[in-house]
Amino acid sequence: MKGQKLQAVDFFTYLGCTLTVEVNIDGEINNRIAKASGGFGRLRKNVWECRGLNAITELKVCHAVVLTTLL
User: Fold this and answer.
1) Among positive and negative, which fits the CA dihedral 34, 37, 41, 46?
2) How many C-beta atoms surround the C-beta of residue 66 within 10 A?
């Protein structure tokens, strides 16, 4: 790259996905589960414990935040 050599690495993150030298997606799956779990936990106070939201709204939020991150 512009005359500089790039360092070889075993893994790196590109657009939110962890790419590895090996053809193994276990690390990526674990990473996505952890991110989705964190997103679900952050919604606890504002969504899951909010008495003003109905179940349909909660499901839409879950789909938009948690499932999108997971998938």
Assistant:
1) positive
2) 19
The pTM for the full model equals 0.65
Two tokens at 48? Answer: 């899951």
| First-to-final CA distance of the chain | 33
Map out the domains of the chain as residue ranges: 24-70
What is the pLDDT at residue 1? 67
Select from 44, 51, 45 the least CA-distant residue to 66. 44
Q: What is the pLDDT of residues 22-49, one digit of tens each?
A: 877 888 888 889 989 998 998 888 888 8
